[in-house]
Amino acid sequence: MKMKKIRLLPAFITLLAGAIASITLYVTDQDLITTLLVLFIVLFVFYFLGVLAMKIIMDFMNRKEPETPVSEEGEVLEKENS
């Protein structure tokens, strides 16, 4: 379930950055060509950053700690140094 939500991270980051850029460009009264160019660059860059963040988070979640050997009775076995 958590993996499905993490896969939506690039889209969420991209849409949020696009909305902020659009509102900012509208308020500052930029012309149409400048607005579209800046918006395209913002969407491209933040999509890439979102994918990178998703990969880092998924790698971190998939990392497993080394297992400690356990005997049948449930006791932890110690490693012998050789």
Q: How can the largest sheet be summarized?
A: none
DSSP summary, beta strand count: 0
Tell me, briefly, the overall form.
rod-shaped
Tell me the span between the first and last alpha carbons. Answer: 44 Å
Structure classification = mainly alpha
| Residue windows where pLDDT falls under 50 for at least 5 positions | none
Note the run of SSEs as H and E: HHH
Tell me the fraction of residues in β-strands, as a range.
under 5%
Integer tally of domains? 1
Give helix % range.
Answer: 55-70%
Tally of separate helices: 3
The overall pLDDT, averaged over residues, is 85
Write out key terms for the chains shown.
68% helix; 82 residues; mainly alpha
Structure in a nutshell:
The chain is mostly helical and 82 residues long. It has helices at residues 2-7, 9-27, 32-62.
Description:
The chain has 82 residues and is mostly helical. The protein has one domain (2-62). 68% of the residues lie in helices and 0% in strands. It has helices spanning 2-7, 9-27, 32-62. Helix 2 packs antiparallel against helix 3 (32-62). The mean pLDDT is 85.
Secondary structure: elements and pairs:
Blueprint: H1 2-7, H2 9-27, H3 32-62
Helix pairs in contact: 2-3
